[in-house]
Every structure is written in C-alpha cells, then in structure tokens.
Design brief:
- Keywords: DNA-binding, Transcription, Transcription regulation.
- This is TetR family transcriptional regulator.
- Pfam families: TetR_N.
- GO terms for molecular function: DNA binding.
- Helix 1 crosses helix 4, helix 5 runs antiparallel to helix 7 and helix 7 packs across helix 8.
- This protein is elongated.
- The model has no long low-confidence stretch (mean pLDDT 91).
- The protein is built from 10 helices and no strands.
- It has 191 residues and is an all-alpha fold.
- It has a single domain, classed as Tetracycline Repressor, domain 2 (Orthogonal Bundle).
Length: 191
C-alpha cells in the first residue's frame, strides 16, 4: 500500500464518521502516524483530498453495482444485495459516504456538492434500471412508477442508516426493507 492510498482509506473513514467539516489533517496525521506536511505533499487541499476520496469510492461503488447485476439474475435478489451494502456500512460503524456528504451539503465546496448529487444519481439510475427490468419480466408490479420506487428505496436505506447511526442499533434487524420488497413483488413467493 502506498502512503497516498493509506491516506485516502483513513480519510474516507473520518469523512464517514466525523464528517467533512469536523476532520482535519491533524486527525489524519495522528491516525496514520505521519507529519501533516507529508499529507499536504499528497493533497495540498482538503477539498482535493475529499474529491479523490469520492472519486475512488465511486469507482468501487460502480463496480459493486455491476457485480451485483452479474451475480444475481433476479431483481429482488439484486435489491437485497444493494441493501446489504448499507447494512455493511452500518455494521462497520460508518454512514454511507453519500449520506455523510449530503448531511453537510451546504458546508461542502461546490465541487463536492456536485459530486454528491452525481453520487445519488448513480444510485437512482441503477435502481430505476433494475426496477424497470423487474417489471418487464413480471417480477415486480407493472403499475409501479420506477422513478418513485427507486427514490423510495434509496430514501428507506439512507434514512435507516441515519436512524441506526443515531440509535447505535442493528441496522438489518430494524430496516423494514423486507416489508418494502414484499410490496413491490408482482406475486408473493410460494413457500
């Protein structure tokens, strides 16, 4: 691992636990045991570092979404795998990066505000495409509005991340995501 990637990894954790406004290069220097000057060498500005974090995360996130599609034929399975990413984040004691950024949107530089919006759009586009696909094969109710359902799913998962974060409880057990999925199914599964 290079110093730069160690920095990005640690800074991402700080961003998802303390938030953009609250973390400093001093925190980061303490966290990974290097001098602040070394951090400035790699990332002259905090904004530049945050952009690098988000871009690196987005690259991994898009690959995860492609992997979910490749690994799961059924849309319900894909949506469950998508929800698992949020549960995983919660289990690790972190907010989803997009949620952490959105919570501080007005405190962020314009470049990061724009990236945060793009980030949510990527979620919604993937969800909409999968919902439409699930409708076309009869897995999901045909009468549903894919745009609204995508937003509902993202709202539920992001919102649950914040509620679990505030209550320090088990995300998966309290999400109610299964109830949401049941309402989307075209036909209930036969047991």
């Amino acid at each position: 691992m290079s110093t730069r990637s160690d920095l990005l990894t640690s800074a991402e954790i700080l961003l998802r636990t303390k938030g953009y406004a609250a973390f400093s290069y001093a925190d980061l220097a303490t966290e990974i045991g290097i001098k602040k000057a070394s951090i400035h060498h790699h990332f002259p500005t905090k904004e530049g570092m945050a952009i690098a974090i988000v871009e690196s995360y987005l690259f991994r996130f898009k690959n995860q979404l492609e992997q979910i599609n490749a690994d799961n034929a059924g849309v319900i399975d894909r949506l469950e795998a998508f929800a698992l990413m949020f549960a995983q984040s919660s289990t690790e004691g972190m907010l989803p990066l997009c949620g952490a950024l959105a919570a501080e949107l007005l405190a962020l530089p314009d470049s990061l505000q724009a990236l945060t919006r793009d980030f949510f759009e990527i979620h919604l586009e993937w969800l909409q495409a999968n919902i439409a696909s699930g409708q076309s094969v009869g897995e999901l109710k045909a009468e549903l509005n894919a745009v609204h359902v995508a937003r509902l799913i993202l709202n539920a998962l992001e919102g649950n991340s914040f509620v679990s974060w505030a209550l320090s409880d088990a995300y998966a057990q309290s999400s109610g995501f299964d109830i949401l999925l049941e309402g989307l199914r075209a036909t209930p599964p036969h047991h």
